[in-house]
Amino acid sequence: MRVNRGVRRGGRNHWAIAISTLAGLAAALSVAGSAQAAGPCAPGTRCLAVDDTGKPTPAGTYTAQCSGQFPDFVTPTTMIPAGGPWFKLAQNYPSTLPPDDAPWLKIDFRNGVQGADAYLYALRDYSFDGMIAADFRPQDNKVRPWFEMPMMNFRAGAREPTHGLTEERPVTGPELGLKPGVTVHNYAIGFYNAAGGYAIGQVWRSDNPKLRKSRFAQGAMTFKILFSDATAQDFSGPDILAGAPQWTIATKSGLKTVRLIQMDVATADRRAPTGWVFGTFAFDTSATDPVAWNRLRPVGISWGNDFGYTPADQKAGKKLTETTISDQIPAYAAAHLGWAGRTNGPVDNPISGCLSCHGTAQYPVNADLAPFAASCDTDAKKMQWFRNLKPGEAFGSINKTTCTLEPLIPPPVTLDFSLQMGVAVQAALQFYDTNSCAPPTAAVRAAIRKVRGNMSAAPIHR
Q1: Structure pTM?
Q2: Distance CA 219, CA 276 (A)
């Protein structure tokens, strides 16, 4: 389970960045009230002309749609289809922690395949209850509230304006049975239940995120649905997505049809050594459920990283002890598990796993999502990604030259396994992207706090 998270590098002095940021905001605020975009927006929203960082400007070629405190999307004006539909960010985050609403906590996920599958199906059914009927627009859900992460509006992973999907890892054949050399693109959107939305609201009370508030209470959960633009003609064999639900989304190359391929679920559960349980589903063309969304079948579940377990152990027939792979897993997903057979989704990088990937969520961003660097060339080095981090423990910094942990002063702040929180925080604190919808006085105050925070939190390598 992953999201795109590029790191901008360079040697600019922090104070120069601070001055530039404040000057840019001052200029932006002078036109924020009058900058109206030429592109279409949803009725009843504010429609602002902005640049690609979200800064309001009359000459902006991007459009920011504002229906609340944060932009619904910031996208090239030419991408927005006339007449909608328009994505609206669900951002009315609860101000108090909601009561317990987690039926899966009554299920023992450690009870073999039966327990793992029951736990996963409980999460899937809870996620879909009311959401299928609402076409996954939380504002229209009549059963329970759902929320989305703000500030995921920039660079290659920016939200598109119809359903709010962001681009995920592309896949190139022969992976997943695609024809050799054929590359398909994948897109996703994630949702948080009320307990998860409460945590988001605590972090994002203003444009200056409170990183240490990124703690998800017991029963907080998130699910992500993933789509692929793969067509039947892209596969060497059968179409693994035949009969899957499909959406039409906006891309820079025009409208595109995408089909459901995967669903990820994660929940805060104190029974797990990391405090989290992660699971994945894959679409199964052989399933006959009347509702196509329910044709997702479990891939597996991980409540720990199985530290010390290597490909040699897998080859020797040893069993994972903190991972259960479902006996209902579709064949193409079974051929695409994570490192040494850990839980991993069809479009995710098999070098890692769901839980290990999300364990890197922290700020500053000082480690890759997985051992991608060439220096990570031994099982021992790769195993650093498969530590069972305690709740509240940050992943730490990895030196890419040596692929070893190194201390930082001050140490990174954990974002509690939320890579989406990491994308949002990085946009605000590292890339200096603008919340286009913020009232001017709030934006100025947030900018000052943001710059000061960056000065005091700049990492110092020992």
Answers
A1: 0.88
A2: 10
Residue type for position 47: C
SS3 state at 331? helix
| CA–CA distances in Å: residue 337 to residues 21, 58, 271, 416 | 43, 49, 24, 24
User: Is residue 296 assigned to a domain?
Assistant: yes
Residue 443 and residue 449: Cα distance in Å, rounded? 10
Number of helices (H) and strands (E), helices first, in the chain? 9, 19
Q: Per the omega criterion (within 30 degrees of 0), is the bond before 410 cis? A: yes
Residue 9 has pLDDT above 60, yes or no: no
Question: pLDDT category, 40, cuts 50, 70, 90?
Answer: confident
* Token pair in block for residue 320: 């994972």
* Residue 5, in any domain of the structure: no
Q: What CA–CA distance (Å, rounded) separates 360 from 412?
A: 10
What is the Cα–Cα distance from 87 to 396, expressed in whole angstroms?
35
In a domain, 4, yes or no: no
- Evaluate whether residue 216 is within a structural domain: yes
Range of the domain at 442: 14-461
The tokens for 169 are 């890892």
CA distance 352 to 372: 9
d(CA 17, CA 51) in angstroms, rounded, equals 18
| pLDDT tens digits, 55-70 | 999 999 999 999 999 9
Q: What is the 3-state secondary structure (H, E, C) of 188-227?
A: EEEEECHHHHHHHHHHCCCCCCCHHHCCCCCCCEEEEEEE
**In a 10 Å sphere around its CB, with 0-12 CB exposed, 13-18 middle and 19+ buried, how is residue 449 labelled?**
middle
Domains identified in the chain, total number: 1
The secondary structure of residue 318, as a DSSP letter, is: P
Q: Are 328 and 297 spatial neighbours (Cβ–Cβ below 8 Å)?
A: yes
pLDDT digits (tens, 9 = 90+) for 168-222: 999 999 999 999 999 999 999 999 999 999 999 999 998 889 999 999 999 999 9
Distance in angstroms (rounded) separating the CA atoms of residues 29 and 434: 11
Alpha helices (H) along 54-111: none
Work out the number of other CB atoms within 10 angstroms of the CB of residue 103. 12
Q: Quick one: pLDDT at residue 458?
A: 40
Q: Summarize pLDDT for 349-407 with one digit per residue, the tens.
A: 999 999 999 999 999 999 999 999 999 999 999 999 999 999 899 999 999 999 999 98
